[in-house]
Every structure is written in C-alpha cells, then in structure tokens.
Write a structure and sequence with these properties.
With 322 residues, the chain is mainly alpha-helical. The chain has helices spanning 16-28, 41-44, 51-67, 85-94, 99-103, 106-113, 120-123, 125-135, 148-165, 205-213, 232-240, 243-255, 260-286, 289-318; strands at residues 3-8, 34-39, 75-79, 140-142, 173-175. The chain has two domains: 3-182 and 289-318, Rossmann fold (3-Layer(aba) Sandwich); 203-283, Tyrosyl-Transfer RNA Synthetase (Orthogonal Bundle). Bound molecules: tryptophanyl-5'AMP.
C-alpha cells in the first residue's frame, strides 16, 4: 500500500478551498492507501499568537475533518505537536538545507507582504513541512496548488539527504488535481483566509448566504447572456452539482433572461444541499468532545510508531547513534 499524508493549519474555519483542494481528495485515498492526516499546530504558531484561539481552532479543524468523512480507523489522524521527533528531524534536515532554497520561497514572501512578522520559524516553515512528510516515509501528498513549491523543497531536501548519507527517505510526490488546484474565492482570487474571500463551511448560515450573494460578477444587464469564461459562479457550481445540472446552469447563463441573483440563489441551494450531511455530523461532534480527544490520542500513538522507526534510521545515518 502507498503511504499518503497531508496536513492542514488550524488557522480559523475550514473553507471550501480546503475542502475541494485537499480534504475531499484525502478522504478518497482512505480506501486505497495507508493514510496519515494531521493538524499542523506548530506551523500555525507562525501566525496565531493567542493560545485560546489556537486551542479552539485545533478542536474545530479536528471536528471539521472528521465531519467531512475522515475515518479514524482507516486513517491515522493526529496533531503535529504530539510527535516530538518532527523537530529533531527538522533540525537534521536544516543542517543540509541551503539557505538559498528557502530564500526562493514564494509563500514566505507572500506572507511577509501580507504583514506576518518575518520570524525564523516563518522562514524555515518549509523545513518543518519537509520533516512532516519525510518522518512518515510518505509517498503521495494531496494538496492544492499553493503547496506545490513546498513539495518541491521537500523533494530537494530528501534527495540531498539521501545523497549525503545514503538512501533513507522515500521521495514524495505531490498529488495536485488540476480542476480543484485553485478554488476561487468570492472575489475571484484564490480562496484564502488572508484575502478575506472565503466561504466557510461551518460558519454562520446567514453569513454564508451573504457571501454567496456577494460573489463578484460583471454588470451584464439582466436579459443579456452571461459570460461563462472566468465566471466564479459557474466554477463553484460545477463543484457541487451533477454534470447534467452544471450543463443546464451554463446553458441558461449563455441564453440570458435572468440576473446574477438568480444564479447565486441556485448556487447557494446547491452548496447548502451538498454540505448538509457534513454540517449535521459536525453538530454531533460538537456534543462529543471526548470522542475527538480519543481519536487524536489514538492517532498520535500510531503515528509515533512510524516516527520513532524513521528517526532511529536517521540518527544512525548521520552518526548520532552508534
Ligand atoms: P493550509 O492549511 O493553508 O491548507 C490546507 C490545504 O488546503 C489547500 N487549499 C486550497 N486548495 C485549492 N484551492 C484553494 N483556494 C485552497 N486553499 C487552501 C492547500 O493547498 C492545502 O493542501 N503548509 C500547509 C500545511 C502542511 C502540510 C504539511 C501539507 C504542513 N505540513 C505536510 C502537506 C504535507 C498549509 O498551510 O496548508
């Protein structure tokens, strides 16, 4: 069985970009591979400085992932910070990581541009991420397009390590699917918390509706045909509708006769129908905090069996162990 791994930062609510870009596909892997999924709480420290928020977000993202269909028997589901070996590995990897490799990180530059403080942790973010991946000898990493460069860095670091010390690591492959690689937000840019353009799955329903109704469109008159190319409405509708329903939707837009509000309402209904069972499971999980704790504790135990085996090999390879 292939080993599949991915992580998500607990940096607020789950949005539909996370869902279609990563979570949904991660869940599909459960029946075909050995899957490990984790909550990247160490990574979140680069942006969240309020301990109460961090605790709350970790819990929310855990419930969200479970509600979306993560099966804690099939998958190993854990918090990154439950596994101390990840830091030992990150240090060892940092010792062979060229500074220039990290200086080229788009994500670092973007985050600085958006006002995050340029800490050492933010700079070495991709090294910790490489450690996440390599510690579990992961082969396939389902992610959205924005993680592509991080995956390239992880591959470079793994290769550099193997060349320096002998074959220890498997070389991971990104699993990026073109149609869902970049889910647009309500303004047409990549959906992202830092652009404030997200549709949050488990947020307030009125707010969700308000945001869907404010999806950016052009000023085509009601009667006129609507452009499909670049239409955020059509892209989002496609994610949640049957192919035949999507065809009808775009045929109707091409024909004209309806204003954008009509299509936004159709989209809202479809989104709500799609996420209804997931939202219901989330509500149930909210009533059962003990269950979420148990799942994460069990996941940490199983993840640690793998991490300890890898770290022993790594220590041996670099000369920290006789
Ligand atoms: P994060 O928490 O920003 O996002 C989680 C996943 O959601 C994907 N995603 C999107 N996909 C398509 N369209 C969008 N608009 C969109 N927005 C977010 C992201 O690509 C990601 O797959 N660095 C990672 C967390 C991480 C990790 C890892 C991932 C830490 N260690 C090891 C894989 C392997 C991050 O911040 O993702």
């Amino acid at each position: 069985l292939k080993r599949v791994l991915s992580g998500i930062q607990p940096s607020g609510h789950l949005h539909i970009g996370n869902y279609f870009g990563m979570i949904k596909r991660a869940i599909e892997w459960q029946d075909k591979a050995q899957t490990l999924y984790f909550i990247a709480d160490y990574h979140a420290l680069t942006s969240i400085k309020d301990p109460q928020n961090l605790r709350q977000y970790v819990r929310k993202i855990a419930m969200a992932f479970l509600a979306c269909g993560l099966d804690p028997i099939k998958s190993i589901f854990f918090r990154q910070s439950s596994i101390p070996e990840v830091h030992e590995l990150a240090w060892i990897l940092a010792s062979i990581t060229p500074f220039g490799l990290l200086e080229r990180s788009h994500s670092f530059k973007d985050k600085i541009a958006k006002g995050l403080s340029p800490t050492l942790a933010l700079f070495s973010y991709p090294v910790l991420m490489s450690a996440d991946i390599l510690l579990y000898q992961s082969e396939i990493i389902p992610v959205g397009q924005d993680q592509k460069q991080h995956l390239e860095i992880a591959r470079d670091i793994a290769q550099k390590f193997n060349n320096t010390y002998g074959e220890v690591f498997r070389i991971p492959e990104p699993d990026i699917q073109e149609e869902v690689a970049v889910i647009p937000g309500i303004d047409g840019q990549k959906m992202s918390k830092s652009y404030n353009n997200t549709l949050e799955i488990f947020g307030d329903p009125q707010e969700f509706k308000r945001k869907v109704m404010s999806i950016k469109t052009d000023s085509t008159p009601i009667a006129a045909p609507k452009p499909i190319q670049g239409s955020i409405l059509a892209s989002l509708y496609k994610l949640v509708a049957q192919p035949s329903e999507y065809e009808e939707f775009i045929e109707s837009m091409k024909k004209g006769g309806q204003g954008y509000a009509y299509y936004k309402k159709l989209l809202l209904e479809k989104l709500n129908a799609y996420f209804k069972p997931i939202r219901e499971r989330y509500k149930e999980l909210e009533c059962n905090p003990g269950y979420v704790d148990e799942v994460l504790a069990d996941g940490a135990y199983r993840a640690r069996l793998i991490s300890q085996e890898t770290i022993r090999k790594v220590r041996q390879a670099v000369g920290l162990l006789d």
